[in-house]
């Protein structure tokens, strides 16, 4: 997953550097197409993160993902089954 994110980020930086400056590169179209292709690889991952965020936004619902680490007071949290 890290390789996919890194490729998408470098493609975005290329577009930002060529599009947001005063002089536009002649190959801007190919750079934008490359960026869109890289971001399509991230589409599934981004959608999963977004859906999980919506799921976690519901305050009245118990969540399946709980932290297994110790709390700040040093006590272990109870595991919910």
Description of the molecule:
Residues 61-81 are annotated as: Disordered. The protein is mainly alpha-helical and 81 residues long. The chain has a domain at 2-56. 58% of the residues lie in helices and 0% in strands. It is built from two helices and no strands. Helix 1 crosses helix 2 (28-56). The radius of gyration is 20 Å and the shape is elongated. The two termini are 30 Å apart.
Largest sheet: none
Class of secondary structure makeup: mainly alpha
Contiguous helical run count: 2
Q: What string, H for helix and E for strand, traces the elements in order? A: HH
Strand content: under 5%
Residue runs with pLDDT of under 50 for 5 or more positions:
none
Distance between the termini: 30 Å
Number of strands: 0
Shape annotation: elongated
For the CA atoms, what is the radius of gyration? 20 Å
In round numbers, the mean pLDDT is: 68
Q: Helix amount, in percent? A: 55-70%
């Amino acid at each position: 997953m890290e390789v996919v994110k890194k490729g998408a980020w470098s493609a975005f930086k290329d577009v930002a550097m060529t599009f947001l400056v005063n002089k536009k590169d002649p190959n801007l179209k190919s750079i934008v197409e490359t960026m869109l292709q890289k971001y399509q690889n991230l589409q599934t991952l981004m959608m999963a993160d977004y859906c999980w965020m919506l799921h976690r936004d519901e305050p009245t619902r118990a969540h399946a993902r709980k932290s297994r680490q110790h709390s700040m007071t040093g006590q272990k949290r109870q595991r919910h089954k």
